[in-house]
Amino acid sequence: MRDRLTAALKAHDVEYADIRVEDNLNTWVNFQGPDLDSIGSSRTVGGIVRALYKGGWGYATFNDLDDLPKRVREACITARLVGTGTTYWAPTDPVVDTIKASLVKDFRQVPLAEKKALAEEYNRIILGHHKSIQTSAVRYADYFKTLWYANSQGTYIEEEKPDTNLLVVAIARDGDIVQNGYETGGGADGYQSVENFQEKARSAAQKAVELLAAPPVSGGKYTVITNQDLTGVFTHEAFGHLSESDFVYENPQMQEIMTLGKRFGSDELNIIDDGSLPGGLGTHRYDYEGVPTRKNYLIKDGILVGRLHSRETAAKMGEPLSGNARSVHFQHPPIVRMTNTYIDQGKTPFAEMIKDIDLGVYAVRSIGGQTAMEMFTFSAAYGYMIRNGQVAELVRDVVLTGNVFETLQNIDCIGDDLAWEPNGPGGCGKGDQHPLRVGLGGPHIRIQNCVVGGQQ
Amino acid sequence: MIVQEIVAKALEKAQAAQAVMVSQETSAVDFENDRLKSAESSQRTKIDLKVIVDGKVGISSTTDPRDVEGVVQRALEAAQFGSPAHFELPEPQALNPVEIFDPAILPLEKPEMIRMGQQMMDMVKSYNPEILAGAAVNKNLYKVEYANSRGASYSAEHTDFNVGAAGQLVRGTDILFAGHGIGQKKRAVDTEAIAAQAIEYFHLAEEIAPIESGEMPVIFTPSGLAALLLSLALAVNGKNVYLGASPLRDKLGQQIASPSLTIVDDPFVPYGPRTSAFDDEGVPRQVTPLVEKGVLRNFIYDLDTAGRAGAKPTGHGSERRLTNLVIEPGQTPYAEMLRGVEKGLLVHEFLGLGQGNPINGEFSVNVFLGYKIEHGKLVGRVKDVMLAGNAFDAIKDITAISQEREWVSGPWAWFNGLIPHVQVGKLSVTAK
Ligand SMILES: [Zn+2]
Predict the structure, then answer these.
(1) Is B397 part of the contact surface with chain A (CB cutoff 8 Å)?
(2) I need a surface site. Which of A74, A307, A446, B64 has the fewest CB within 10 A?
(3) What is the pLDDT of residues A75-91, one digit of tens each?
């Protein structure tokens, strides 16, 4: 493949060009309710050529790999239609590297019958858990992706990216009230990462049943503690996306808001994006422009100190490369994305954090979040009221919303218990690129004056 | 056709098979941050195969039309462990004629698409140079081929054309996004009107209007109605009905909404964004009334779910997707609807839609773009406001539907349809 890509790139007549080709073999087993909903496999092969000319991009995407030089020419012609300005392109040393998958238990060797039996067992556990369990969903999927990347500056990378993931959902009903419980699992290191999930399946079912009896939280302003998973989602959604410099690099007002050196939170607040973190869901050795990944501080001791870049945005802003150009699929060019994003561990134990709260909300896990610059909103899977310094009754429909700048300033306590959200089928969406694997992590944090939505 | 070849190959081991192939060519231009940023040519092919062996279903797909052996072999393997088929593949049937192909789209080249995008951007910039403007224009030609082992074989060529303009305006830490776009199967499109609509959203949002928490009348714009339609779409999905998860599962023939509400799923709207003659299971599309004068009329079913539930397939494909949602216009001119509100909210876009438990109808969303109504007038944009309620209660509490309707469409839309403004009597609004 190296020869084919290098030969095709010779057809380019622009300032920079690259090709990425992917071959993705995917197998899945889905149960919904008592029935096997779908079992099957797919193979997706294709690629993208990017050409950069006078600041303008031309892309050609394709499934048919036959005539790669033609795709390169197509992208170049398109780039020449677009480019009329100046090219910004940060230099990086060319690399040649091969990254092989390392699997403890190779899911490609596991018969489909065994994958089906595994999903079926988890599904049976959920359905049999309690009489109010109405239905269930169990989704198993594995992917074996091979990527080939070459650019006109001599870089060639071949990488295998395996992924196994599992989602189990329990849906309980009582009259018109329907509640969900879920758990996710999996990993990049093989099939064993989705085995022995029986206990988790039971706890998903149990949570759905318990939530039936839980009242909706009543809307208002509270002192909120978020658990680790939710801290991770908050960090990613509310702040992380603002650190993606494609939002900033051509936007003078956003640059003013996100000026390096500005204080965003207390001295204790550290926010990091680290694409080189061993075992992280968003970990790569190189990003999709051949830039090595690394640990990037975004906020250090409460001060904004860095942001995430592609080669174009780094050059345009005159800031260091961070290794954050990523793409979800060959039909899309890489854009600036997070990798593994987290609030670093602080000093406060959970018991210490909660003990002075007379009335508050302990928000646990996340079932979705969305952000539009300063505004964010995300839904906790469930929550508990905090009363007189204690975790009290279970509540549902906990939706947190607010202005990120105010919320970061309102974090007055950071826990000593950093943890990462487990693998699962979800991921980050940006533009039309979804779901991209990202690591979400953090400790428990305490937020003052946080708006919790709900009916009043 | 390759699809017939694949079906024939599969029938060497399978008792029934169907194949669908979609081949697509796309051209797109994209403006970001006041400038032309990129343009793209794209070629895509996808083949989906479904086989039935000893009464069990196996599926597989590939992007490589030469991989006939591979795709057939993987589907056959999956069928060994597959779920029992609760259906038979459909026989050949006469299809409704549809208007889905506009030859005027064929000669449209990137320089002309760039010109259209530039024109919309220039309009937005000349309204307010502080707005960071963007635009997108893309055209799409695609061919869908279907064949099954009962001799049904259909083929359709579609054109798609999507045009949109958007921008963001930052003042201090306040950031405003607004935009408008259209997706359809014909070329004729009024770029000036699209830009003008985007500008109107900015214009109305110039002032920020504080609002107090409480219950108040809420008007949903056509695209804002997604907040209610999302729950309804989940609840009429035959799979959710069959699984018992839909709160409407036992409400066919009953009054579930205000008598003023009629919603029809119409796949035959000429050049509509989701118009087509057959679905990916070879089932002819059909007009499906969902709600008639407030009475629930139908659920939507794919072949297998219909078989399990003892219902008829409705031509919404294996994924049970709605096509073009057409809501009947009401009696009230929009201007009059607005004039009738003493104090309320007009909502257009949300953050957090679809989170939580949408099938229950419950929503609690951040109003991303919404306007305060005072003494019958839009007086400014609201900020940090949550709208909460239950979609199934809200559709019972519809107090007015506008005479005017707009197309909500395009790849950026939550759904596609011809939709009026809808006023709901009372919903809970929480302001920070
Ligand atoms: Zn994200």
Answers:
(1) no
(2) B64
(3) 999 999 999 999 999 99
- Mean of pLDDT values over A308-323: 96
Considering only alpha carbons, which residue of chain A is nearest residue B82? A39
What chain A residue is nearest to B168 in terms of C-alpha separation? A251
Q: Which two tokens stand for residue A164?
A: 């196994």
Do strands A359-372 and A220-226 pair parallel, antiparallel, or not at all (unpaired)? Answer: parallel
The pLDDT confidence band at residue A454, using thresholds 50, 70 and 90, is: low
Side chain identity, residue A154? G
pLDDT value at residue B317 = 97
Residue A456 pLDDT more than 60?
no
Q: How far is the C-alpha of A180 from the C-alpha of A170, rounded, in Å? A: 6
* CB-CB neighbors (< 8 A) of A222 in chain B: none
Whether B90 and B109 share a structural domain: yes
B18-39 per-position pLDDT tens digit: 999 999 999 999 999 899 999 9
CA distance A294 to chain B (A): 28
Last residue of a domain, one of B188, B204, B220: B204
- Burial of A318 by CB count in 10 Å (0-12 exposed, 13-18 middle, 19+ buried)? exposed
Q: pLDDT, tens digit, for every residue of B247-263?
A: 999 999 999 999 999 99
- In the block, which residue shows the tokens 């019972």? B396
Whether residue B170 is found in the same domain as residue B245: no
CATH 3.30.2290.10 domain range(s) in chain A:
2-213
Secondary structure class of B352 (helix, strand, coil): coil
B102 and B242 belong to one structural domain: no
Surface of B (84-123) touching A: CB under 8 A: 110-111, 114
Instruction: Give the structural domain span for B152.
Output: 2-204
**Number of domains chain B contains:** 2
**What is the CATH number assigned to the segment(s) A2-213?**
3.30.2290.10
Least confident of A174-178, A213-217, B302-306: A174-178
* Nearest chain B Cα distance for residue A76, angstroms: 10
A41 touches chain B (CB under 8 A): yes
Q: What is the CA radius of gyration of chain B?
A: 23
This complex has an ipTM of 0.85
Q: Are B253 and B382 in contact (CB under 8 A)?
A: no
Cβ A36–B175 below 8 Å, yes or no? Answer: no
- Mean pLDDT check: name the lowest of A251-255, A296-300, B325-329: A251-255
Whole-prediction pTM: 0.88
Q: What is the pLDDT of residues B124-148, one digit of tens each?
A: 999 999 999 999 999 999 999 999 9
Chain A window 244-283: which residues touch B at a Cβ cutoff of 8 Å? Answer: 250-251, 253-254, 257
The Cα B333–Cα B336 span in angstroms is 5
- Give the bridge partners for A62, in sequence order: A47
Most A CBs within 10 Å: which of B29, B173, B215, as the mutation test of the A interface? B173
**Is the CB of B70 inside 8 Å of chain A's CB atoms?**
yes
Indicate whether B178 and B321 sit together in one domain: no
CA distance B81 to A19: 38
- Interface list for B 325-364 with A (CB within 8 A): 351-357, 359-360, 362, 364
Tokens describing residue B339: 């004039």
Quote the ligand 1 centre to A236 CA distance (angstroms). 6
Which two structure tokens, joined as six digits, stand for A443? 């400790």
